[in-house]
Amino acid sequence: MTDILILGGGPAGLTAGLYAARAGKSVVVCEKEGFGGQITQAHQVDNLPGLPGISGIELGDKLCAQAMDAGVETSFCEVVGIHWNEDGTFYVETDDGPINARAVIFAGGAKPRMLGVDREEALIGNGVSYCALCDGAFFRDRDVAVIGGGNTAFSDALVLAGICRSVTIIHRRDSFRAEETVVQAVKNTPNIRLMTPYTVKELVGADQVEGVILNDGTKLDVQAVFVALGRVPDCSLIEPLADLDEAGYAISGEDCMTKTPGLYVAGDCRAKTIRQLTTAMADGTVAAMAACEWLK
Ligand code: NAP
C-alpha cells in the first residue's frame, strides 16, 4: 500500500511528490508520456521566479531528479481506472498492473485543444503538430503556420522563425493573449507575419499538409500547421469521484481536495482562474501537504 499515488509527472505532480516524500510518505508518480509534463515543450521559461531563461526540458529534468532524490518512485505507466474502496483507500489500475494507495493526487494536466477542421487528426505527424519544439526541425527552410494568439503560439513562432523560411501566425482576433514582450519580439522578427482576424477553415493536402484555406477563402501555401490554441482538461478518470465544472475542470476546495475524501487535484486540470507554472507548483504543494495531514 502506497501512501500517496500521484497521477501526472508535470510540475504539479512532481512538486506534490517532492513535498509528500520530504514529509516521509511513500509516493509513486505515474506518468504516461514524459516526466516534466507540458513545460518541457517550452523553448525557454522566463516567468519562473529565480530561474529566468531556463529551458523547459532542463526544468522538467531538474523537477524529476529533485523529486526522485527526495524518495519519489516514478512509474512510466498509464492509469486507466481509479476506484474508491469502502475503507477509504484507492485501487488504481494501470497498464502496468494495479497500485493500492491511501490517497491520490490527480495532476493529469490538460491536452492540446484541436483546431476542429476536417482531416486534422489524419494529418497529425504529416504537417499537423501541437508541439513546435518537438516537430519544428522537420520543417527546416519551409513555410509554416502557427494558429493561436497566446504565449504558446508566439513563443512557438519565435522558435520556428529560427528554423523555417517563414512563419505565419493566424489568429482569430486583432489583439493577443500573449505577453507584450513576446508580441514585440514577434513583430521585430522579419520572417514572421501576423494575419488577423482569420480562422482556418480547411487543411489542403492529401497525405501531407500543403496549405490552409482561411475563412475568407485565402489559400496559404504552408507545409506545416502548428496548432497552439491552449489546452483542455481530461478529468474523465476521476469524473465519478470529483465534480467537474462546465468546462471539464475538477472542482476542489482550497486544500485541493475533491468531494471524495483522500482524492486531490493539482495543476491545470483543477478548476481555478490562473493556470501558470507557478500556480501548478502551488497546487502540488497544497495538495501534498493536505494529503499528508489527511493521512494522519
Ligand atoms: P491560451 O493563452 O489559452 O491561448 C490560446 C489561444 O488560442 C488564444 O489566442 C485563443 O484565442 C485561441 N483559441 C482558442 N480556441 C480557439 C479556436 N477554437 N479557434 C481559434 N482560436 C482559438 O493558451 P496558451 O498560449 O497555450 O497558454 C496557456 C498558458 O500557458 C497561459 O497562461 C500562458 O501564459 C502559459 N504559457 C507560458 C509560457 C512561458 O512563459 N514561457 C509559454 C507558453 C504558455 P482568443 O484569445 O481569441 O480566445
What does this entry show, briefly?
With 296 residues, this protein is an alpha/beta fold. 23% of the residues lie in helices and 26% in strands.
What this model shows, in words?
This protein is α/β, with parallel strands linked by helices and 296 residues long. It folds into two domains: 2-111 and 231-295, FAD/NAD(P)-binding domain; 114-227, 3-Layer(bba) Sandwich (FAD/NAD(P)-binding domain). It is 23% helix and 26% strand. The strands form four sheets. Strands 1, 2, 3, 4, 5, 6 and 17 form a seven-stranded mixed β-sheet that branches. Strands 8-15-9-10-11 form a five-stranded parallel β-sheet, covered by helices on one side. It has a three-stranded antiparallel β-sheet with strand order 12-13-14, with no helix packed on it. Helix 1 runs parallel beside helix 2 (56-69) and helix 4 packs parallel to helix 5 (180-187). The chain is elongated. The two termini are 15 Å apart. The mean pLDDT is 96. NADP nicotinamide-adenine-dinucleotide phosphate is lined by residues 42, 45-47, 113, 148-153, 155, 171-173, 177, 199, 228-230, 275-276.
